[in-house]
């Protein structure tokens, strides 16, 4: 009786990528864009490629020209993906009377965010945020003030469950959004807002003057 021939080790770059692998590469790309290393057009292109990636070989080139990866992008990627991700909190409760609440830059998004605001405003910027899973819940109870949500490509916001009393919901996140980037994360907003508004939009693109200044300083 012959024994089965043992399988030869596969090349690491041929290993299949998981949803978590794609999400973590996407997070690294968003941080790079927030640091000014990638333009919004480059970010959109690389996010599209990241969400469509099947193997590590597909993911590694997306990080190859970024600090911390370079020519050893595949090895660095394998090492980075082997590190357990930071676990977000299940629920974060925020209560304010006056003032404002701002979540922006690099931050870890809880699975559910409860906002109880009186006369204040809230900014939730997901451009460089780290999310877990495919859904984030935002429950709001606001009297006056506004809720502003900034979402990069690959995100979608559902604010249909918000009860508005004397306010409005304006969603500009789909404006100029690349049609081929799949939705990888959904933000579900529910609750009640009286005398306020909800503004959903993509990250602000650098204006012509800022782009010219940026070129002149290089």
Automatic annotation (TrEMBL):
Composition bias type Basic and acidic residues, residue spans: 8-24
Record region (Disordered): 1-24
Signal peptide: none
Pfam family, one: DUF1707
Domain DUF1707: 15-67
Name of the protein in its database record: DUF1707 domain-containing protein
């Amino acid at each position: 009786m012959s024994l089965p021939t043992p399988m030869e080790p596969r090349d690491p770059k041929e290993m299949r990528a998981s949803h978590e692998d794609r999400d973590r590469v996407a997070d690294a790309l968003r941080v790079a864009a927030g640091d000014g290393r990638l333009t919004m057009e480059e970010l959109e292109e690389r996010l599209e490629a990241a969400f469509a990636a099947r193997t590590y070989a597909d993911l590694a080139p997306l990080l190859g020209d970024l600090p911390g990866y370079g020519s050893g992008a595949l090895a660095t990627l394998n090492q980075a993906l082997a590190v357990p991700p930071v676990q977000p909190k299940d629920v974060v409760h925020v209560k304010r009377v006056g003032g404002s609440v701002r979540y922006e830059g690099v931050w870890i998004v809880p699975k559910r965010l409860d906002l109880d605001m009186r006369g204040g405003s809230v900014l939730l910027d997901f451009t460089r945020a780290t999310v877990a899973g495919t859904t984030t819940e935002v429950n709001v109870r606001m009297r006056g003030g506004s809720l502003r949500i900034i979402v990069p490509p690959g995100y979608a916001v559902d604010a249909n469950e918000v009860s508005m009393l004397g306010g409005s919901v304006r969603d500009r996140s789909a404006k100029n959004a690349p049609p081929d980037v799949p939705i990888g994360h959904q933000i579900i907003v529910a609750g009640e807002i009286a005398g306020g508004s909800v503004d959903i939009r993509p990250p602000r693109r650098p204006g012509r003057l800022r782009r010219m200044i940026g070129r002149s300083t290089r």
